[in-house]
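Most newcomers find our protein records easier to grasp once they have seen one. Each record describes a single protein and holds just a pair of labelled lines. A learned vocabulary of local backbone shapes supplies the integers on the structure line. Nothing more is needed to start thinking about how sequence determines fold. The record below serves as our worked example for the rest of this section.
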Amino acid sequence: MPSAVPNRSSEAAPLAQRLLVLGPFLSLGLVLVVLWSLVGWFSLIYPRSLIQDVQSELQSTADNAAGETDALLREAEGNLRTMDLLLLTRRTKEEGRDATVSLLADTLREGSRGVTDFMLAHTDGRLWRIPSGSTPLVELGPDSFLQELKDVRAQTVVVGGPLRLRPGARLVLPLSTRLSGDRGQFQAAVALIDLDMVLKLYRARLQRPGQAIFLEREDGLALARVPEVPELLGRNVVQDRPDRKLPASAPPGGRFEIGEASLDGKDRVVAYQTLRSFPLRIFVSLEEDRVLGGYLVQRRAVLGFSLLVSLTAIGLMLWFTRVQSRARLAEAERQATADASPMGLFRATLDGRTVYANETYLQLMELDRAHLAWGWLERLPVQEREPARQDWMKRVAEGQAMDRLRHFRRSDGTEMVLAVRTRPMRVHGRIVAYAGTVLDVTEPARQQEATRMLSAIIDSSPDYIVQTSPQGHIVYLNPAVRRRLGMDRDTPPKDLHQRQFFVDGGERFEREILPAVMRDGHWHGRWAVRMRSGGELPVDCTLILHRDEKATVRNFSWMLRDITDELAVERERERSQAVMSALAHSSAVEVLAVDTEQRVIFCNRTMEQNLGLAPRAWEGWTAEQLLGEQRYALARLQIERALKGETSVEEWRDEAAQDRGAPRYIEWSYGPLLGETGQPIGAYGVGRDVTDTKEEQIRLLKASNTDPLTELLNRAGFASHIDTALERARDRGELVALLYLDLDRFKPVNDQYGHPVGDALLKAVAGRLRHALRPQDLVARLGGDEFAVFLHHVAKVEDAQVVADKLVHALSMPFRIGALELHIGTSVGYCVQWARQADINALVTQADAQLYRAKRAGRGQACGSVCASDVTPAA
């Protein structure tokens, strides 16, 4: 039996083909990468090495020039210090003519080989040459380099800018220092170095054309340059070019590249060195074009050659790509044509191994490329594989073609039928392989089966199915219609026209039905058809238009269902709904119904009137829109429970009714509206006005909690209200106080003047208590001549004593009852405590004990107690 192992040679073929296509490009690309890598090195790295070599050479020159300049300046500095020392020891009045000083000056001039001259100067710019006359040799003015000596200490040497002592004289570089002592008109010693001699030293150091040596003070003042640049000396180049200034952290020596447009307009490679003894720098530079001149010529030659090679290689690559593209396009067209074919195409070897297949074949066989070789055999049941292989080998041996229907089972378990056809491929008369096609014929077979099943359904349907031509002739009647018309099964419907069955002569068909079906392709609605007996049959009608591929009308299909019984049921339902609606609208209770989305589907007239709505103004509203925000907030939970299948009864106060008078109390009963399946399809609510009953209950409750004589709270009402007040005070963290009052001398008055006077006196006491207390305070008559007061929101402990004293004072004033003026009083006992710690029984006990204490202390007293642990609120 053939193995199912994938063919490795078939897997390696695409890889080899890709390598064959990409190989020339990869090789040529590698050569170009190597070539341009060398060009990049030659263009980027090699010039840097050239510059670094030149910078090393320039650095050596800068070091040597700096050493020579430093030695020359230090020699001049030493001579200045010698002259300063001599002048310090001489005490003559005219140092400028002193023979010893003049001899020293001449000796120093000769020792410098004529490079340096020495003078005495005043800081205002006057210079005297030694030996000096009475008048200065030169007057430089107040802005000369000597002004810099004013801000430095004695013996500090200052290097000034280049200057000419007289027009046409040679440039000199001045070094000056302040004299150590006051020498009259002489305040400084000056050494003037011949700048031409300095430049001569620098020229000897120039080794290449384009090389320059530049002496600069650290603040940017140009002192000397070889070769010379017009108008450069004495100019501050840092002010012209701030980018030239070296940072304070720069090392004494270094190298860099700079564009010297402010000097001679040429980019230069630079090395510099700072003098060890003076704030001066020597810059040695070389024109960058001189450094890279020969290299640039070589680089242009290399770039030109490399560009030529690259363009030639790219041209060859493009030509080769175009040739390959044509070949690939031809192959792709062949492959696309094969893949686009609705038939599966394949090629197999003589032993049955598949070596090529298009995408349609793979989709039909549900195979991937890895299992292409023997996939067709593995798709067969195990017991059919060997017979199928033997049949293949037999036909190959005989050179026969094959036309066969094969049944396969798809991966989803469904069955498919494939038509397989093969033909031998002959080369020089010899069979070398087989080519074939695979076509899925499952759907045509199913369609034939579906057509047979649909015909059977139509034939057995109890509905009336009719087909008519575009002209209205009846061309088909299903058995149900034939039975209704009394026609045999095989009798052709000739001479029958659709007009024979129209009850109105076809008016509705022409006006409404035909335009709709021509526009939409179908029409559905209720209609009535005429029977042969002369009566009318109500039907539910569906009319379908059929067109051919050219959109021409071929025929119409009529599906008619007898709805005589349905109409009878609907009429009965309408009568029932009318009766129920009349009962609901005439009822005095409010009736509401909503669907599962809480949209109102019914609201009776009583509810419309109570809500101030016009009849059916609620259509399209939700329950929230109908009831309003306030009423819906009360009813929402009941409605939601009813939609879940629960019933509930709740009573709530309709505050919104105050706009039309006193508020109303409504008892609402909610339950589910159940559908035919027993599941809720909505909810209903019935609201009954129980305002009269509720008000009677409130009146009876108030009577049970109120003292009928004084209209104060009685003992039961006080106990009920004090619990609520104490809970509210606990939430707010307040101090509370309970006061017990007992009237003094009330019993003698009652015994002497009788109960009518006693009752009137108790009413007057109640009035004074109300007047003395706040509206929110609770006051009650506990019985007889005993009263109680509960204070909440007490600001501080002492306020309870203030209120108690106020009540004692109020009741100690005389009472006028008719013609009588009666004098009584009261004793008060009270207890103060934080509400969060308070217990009502403990408050009563302590207040009663304090009342007893007040009675013992003498009537008309107020006594109270506060526990020491209760004066601060609990955390």
